[in-house]
Design goal:
homodimer; 345 residues; alpha/beta; Aspartate Aminotransferase, domain 2; Aspartate Aminotransferase, domain 1; 2 domains; 7-stranded mixed sheet; 3-stranded antiparallel sheet; 11 helices; 10 strands; 13% strand; globular
Chain lengths: 345, 345
């Protein structure tokens, strides 16, 4: 948007001699992010809890490195974001995947509990979930916290949550987003500005610590040190200076909600089984034929680009992104209908 | 500079809908970097040899991860850049430090040869050297290549060079810079734009492969994959778009050479022992008293900020940066004289 470009162009005008010098965790940027996070998540985050990173990937990578030792296990639910596995493996850790409740896309807490071993160190959550659009409810997060407390006590080693929340400002129907950090203090919040600003190439996000995290000061130091030692995972100076203005830009949630409703209603009318995403700008319908990759090709022949569920280790589904314009989405509906008919034939 | 700011402000104006989308190794940026590198280093680099990174730290971190396995040894000479150790340790590798020739600041090839074990996988070089200002001569690099070829044959495992070259465009007296890559194809070139543009907070650099590197295609793939898996170590989109114009900006080498000469001549007249840097914007004089940290404090009392040799694991020296203006440098000379007198007293 114009406001986005103007904010960054303005941040490029040097205010002092050291404007482009090494810039790590610019205090005004941290405070703007903490203030925004306090409004979203009902916890008293401080500016120093915010570790500015080159986007969400970097925030997750830092959290993994901060608490896990090589060989530790990292549990996450399918369908996962497709780069969790490579981030986990590159950190020298072991991915352990569990399924979700296929009817509701909610976390399967029994499956998580059963996957925990003495080597489990981290559970990664993504809420609102990419690709399912599920926003995990408070009751689920509360029970998960109890499961992890109990398991940590049993194994004698604290299990941490890494909460991957790039969509935490994209929640529909006025629903309240609840962060896992509200329920469990041994948790990290990874955020990226790429989604709400629709500018993922610009690489700014953060890793936040909750106020109640034990040894929070030591953890802050450890993360700052890791930001250097893993390749200087700080965002560039200008993005940091622009952050207070970027925080003020509004994502047009109403427009995306209209797109979601339009698409869900139309798909259901055609005959697709699809749940109404509670958040994110994704839908995750069932493929009308078992082979989701074949169905993605059928859609592609009609000019519709979606991702097969197999990429998310969840065959039989596909992911629709609603970032196209309302007009483009409307224009795609006949193609979705024709593809459904072709698949049925 | 104004031209720098203008180049970036211009790159912020979107040319198409996906201007701020995920941007990895923008082709025009790669080609601009490869073309510039072909002029500097007499090797036929291709655009695909350039892996754009969030600065030099990230480039070195990627090279370490690309070829070394946990527990492998990484050899480098003292004084090192002060973050080699944390980059090496964070990659799960073992730092092995060797001394240099204290009279010439040249590499001590015998010391390097003696440090090699069957676990040695990488030798890091920094040329022109921060902090000594030494530019390693062709003959030294040629002999180093022979040492590493011989050692690799002996251990049965190839030893790689990581050539850390953020100052390779900052060489004085018309001297020719020679990259280690010209002499040894199992080598990576890590570059940062932060130094010549005096904008280290902006986080853009690259890791380049030499055309003669064996299995270059596989190495390109491995590095691109690592860029994701270590936290998305790609520079932000706008910096990538600006790169062709940033490559055209000239570093005022004459000004820095005047600063170097002024400072070296004045320091020597006062009584300091200091070699005339061949490159970089640093000088690395001997401390007139053994305790370089005490001497740094004596200088600081006179308003002069330098770094003690101890930070570079080389006690008895200190590092001067010539990034201040010529006027500031001239104004500092009485302080250097007074500190020398105070140290002698």
């Amino acid at each position: 948007s114009t406001a986005y470009v103007e904010a960054l162009r303005d941040a490029l005008i040097p205010r002092h001699e050291l404007w482009f010098a090494y810039t790590m965790n610019d205090p005004a940027a941290r405070e703007a992010a903490a203030s925004s996070l306090r409004r979203l998540v009902n916890l008293p985050f401080e500016a120093d809890d915010i570790h500015l990173t080159t986007g969400g990937f970097a925030a997750i990578a830092l959290a993994l490195k901060a608490v896990a030792d090589p060989g530790d296990e990292v549990v996450y639910s399918l369908p996962p974001w497709f780069l969790y596995e490579s981030l986990v493996l590159e950190a020298g850790l072991v991915p352990v995947k569990v399924t979700i409740d296929p009817a509701t896309f909610d976390l399967d807490l029994d499956a998580i509990a059963a996957a925990i071993t003495p080597r489990t160190r981290i559970v990664i959550l993504c809420t609102p979930n990419n690709p399912t659009g599920r926003v995990y409810p408070a009751a689920t997060l509360q029970r998960l916290a109890a499961v992890l407390d109990e398991a940590s006590a049993r194994t004698g080693r604290r299990i941490y949550i890494v909460s991957d929340e790039p969509y935490n400002r994209i929640v529909y129907d006025g629903a309240a987003f609840r962060s896992p950090l509200e329920f469990y203090p041994h948790a990290f919040l990874a955020y990226s500005y790429g989604k709400t600003l629709l500018a993922p190439g610009q690489r700014i996000g953060y890793l936040a610590l909750p106020p109640a995290m034990p040894s929070r000061e030591e953890m802050r130091d450890a993360i700052r040190t890791l930001q250097f030692a893993t390749g200087f995972l700080f965002p560039n100076a200008v993005l940091q200076y622009a952050l207070p203005r970027l925080e003020e830009l509004r994502f047009d949630i109403d427009l995306f909600q209209r797109k979601r409703n339009l698409m869900v209603d139309a798909l259901r009318e055609i005959g697709y089984r699809v749940s109404r995403s509670e958040g994110t700008f994704y839908l995750f319908p069932e493929s009308p034929i078992g082979d989701d990759e074949a169905f993605v090709r059928i859609l592609a022949e009609r000019g519709i680009l979606v991702m097969p569920g197999r990429i998310f280790e969840t065959p039989g589904y596909f992911r629709i992104s609603l970032t196209a314009t309302l007009e483009t989405i409307e224009a795609s509906l006949p193609g979705f209908a024709a593809a459904f008919a072709a698949a049925a034939a």
